Here is the input.
Amino acid sequence: MQTTVEAASLDVEGVELAFGSNKVLRGVDLAVPAGRTACVIGPSGSGKSTLLRAINRLLEPDAGDVRLAGESVLRSNPDELRRRIGMVFQHFNLFPHKTVLENITLPLRKIKKLGPDEARTAALAQLELVGLGNKAAARPGTLSGGQQQRVAIARALAMKPEVMLFDEATSALDPELVKGVLGLMADLAQAGMTMVVVTHEMGFAREVADQVAFMDHGVVVESGVPEQLFTAAESPRLRLFLSQVL
Amino acid sequence: MDIWSTLNDTFLDWGSMKEVLPEMLKVGLLNTLVLAASSVVLGTLLGMVVAVMALSRKRWLRWPAKIYTDVFRGLPAILTILLIGQGLSPITRHWWGPNPYPLGILALSLIAAAYIGEIFRSGIQSVEKGQLEAARALGFTYPAGMRLVVIPQGVRRVLPALVNQFIALVKESSLVYFLGLLASQRELFRIGQDAAATNGNLSPLLLAGIFYLVITVPLTHLVNHFDKRLREGRPTDESRADDVVREELAHADHR
Here is the structure.
């Protein structure tokens, strides 16, 4: 994949978030320099997906701060902020009443205010980049899970984000389809995108991530370069987790 | 007593039917269609407003919608039509005279809006939460996400129920006759009833019934068509099984 990215740094500082009395994030810290990839691993319910939603303010943090290119996101308009941060979901969340092309042109036209031709050209170029230029007229429901996720990635990338968030992007895919999507994400990391990837794919975390953060009970228990984390984990909780998933 | 002869005289008096047919076509059918179509349009617009209010996070919008729905769904249609048609007449006569026709349309629309609002609400609520979340993540505002992504999907899902409601409206339009329409404003039922009273048999009413069926049966088939399309539009197990093959072919193309 050849794409040009204008990546920004992302700093999560002491973010806390609770649903009622249930504290899901208890002071999360994560620093991702521009153009780097951070993988967030951890058991279910550890707060990984909530962390991503706190970063782009789909969920409002109760405390702490998130800085995009050094500026606090809490001071910016949430809708404008999300236009700078792309997000890819576990269940793709493509709009089924639109064609593949329209899924990408809709935000380009309505949010970026591009003209119909300009939006179409940009969307087709993005589809070509993810290898689905021939699926522009198809409905998302007629595509395989892997293809749908690639369209979702194309839709996010078309907005020219400075950071990409991936929320278990391959968890809902059949094993045979995972490789294609992971390959696309690896290409994106290679192209210099700043990425935060919540994943259960330890192979991907090991090979592609610049840093890996292990979350448990709403905090980052341990983080570091993949080699250090996977081969010389300090925390007993991480060692236990790795012994169960590797 | 010759049963067949009695039934024949009561229901199949071709002379009575032939006599009333032109009026039924030119006046009755037209008025029934105007009453039903106007109420469908107004009821759908108002129903969408009620649905959006009912789904609002603001209590002061939600509660009026809930009360409105409870009241207009809970009252017998004939009671609502009489209360609005006769009750508001002293006020509206300053605008369009003692004509009950617009008030009949208003009453039908208000009743329809309560049902259509609930249909829209259930449709919109059936759309997966991830759809709005994806729209918001792209940078759409909440209203834009609802308008461009969630509501269009919700409305499509309830098309069969919506057409069923339109069928009910066609039939309920006959109740407007209680308001005392002018001769030129009579709908199918009233014309059939008047002719039945004049001729002393029910054949004109049977003819009115046939007209109602001519309108409602195609709509019923339209419901079935929407229903079938919605069901068959979903991917089948076979198509899911082909996913892997398609994916591999796509990769092969890409390489």
Summary: The domain at 14-253 of chain B is CATH 1.10.3720.10 (MetI-like fold). The mean pLDDT of chain B is 88. Chain B touches chain A at residues 128, 130-131, 133-141, 144, 148-149, 152-153, 156, 233-235, 239, 243-244, 246-248, 250-251, 253-254 (CB under 8 Å).
